[in-house]
Amino acid sequence: MVTPINSYGKNSLRRRSLHEEVADCVRTMIIEGELKEGQRINEPELCLQLDISRTPLREALKVLHSEGMVTIEPNRGAWVATITAEEIREHFEIISTLERRAAELTAIKASESDLTRLSQLQEKLEHHYQAQDRHEYFEINQHIHRLIIELANNESLTHLHHQLMNRVSRGRYLAIGMQHRWDESVDEHKALLEALLARDGDRAGRILAEHVMHTGETVVKELEQQKKVG
């Protein structure tokens, strides 16, 4: 169920612009499947749901278009972007390589405070897993991956990773909807943290690369199965 943007209160809107808040909300709706791939975005209806005017929604859609999550056709409207199994496969191959390098660098560069942050996030991740709270789990999962990229302190790597992750975020959410993959993912995250705490860059890089590829393979298999059924 969508929470109206204006119900978040004035304080949150002082920190960020309204269209950024709207972009976050619509992005989540796409990731979690409330807005389906290929679906036309009904702007008047969405404005009513979010309790906003048309202008911030259109600005938000431009942001999502730049991320590859929405396609916009002049004078026709906006649609949720589609992505093929082959595109997913290619994107995950690149993300796997980027995150492997990021983990190697993080093991070397991270401060003790940084590693404590990662440990705390892992605790939250496991808590949400035990509660089977997929939404909160996914948010923390995203945070961990972004933090490892950030700690690598490589601007080009960060920029490319951000672009690709936006394109596959719906697929990543789909993967944890499969219990066997969710179970595996938690164990892989535990092993990753252990390697980072030991400052074993080679092991951390290998674990994270394999973790990303396992997720990609799961998503591709599911999309191909859906195509056969469809």
From TrEMBL:
Keyword vocabulary terms for this entry: DNA-binding, Transcription, Transcription regulation
Residue ranges of every copy of the HTH gntR-type domain listed in the record: 16-83
Lineage summary: Bacteria, Pseudomonadati, Pseudomonadota, Gammaproteobacteria, Aeromonadales
One Pfam family matching this protein: GntR
SUPFAM superfamilies: GntR ligand-binding domain-like, Winged helix' DNA-binding domain
Domain of life: Bacteria
Organism of this sequence: Oceanisphaera arctica
Protein name according to UniProt: GntR family transcriptional regulator
Molecular functions per Gene Ontology: DNA binding; DNA-binding transcription factor activity
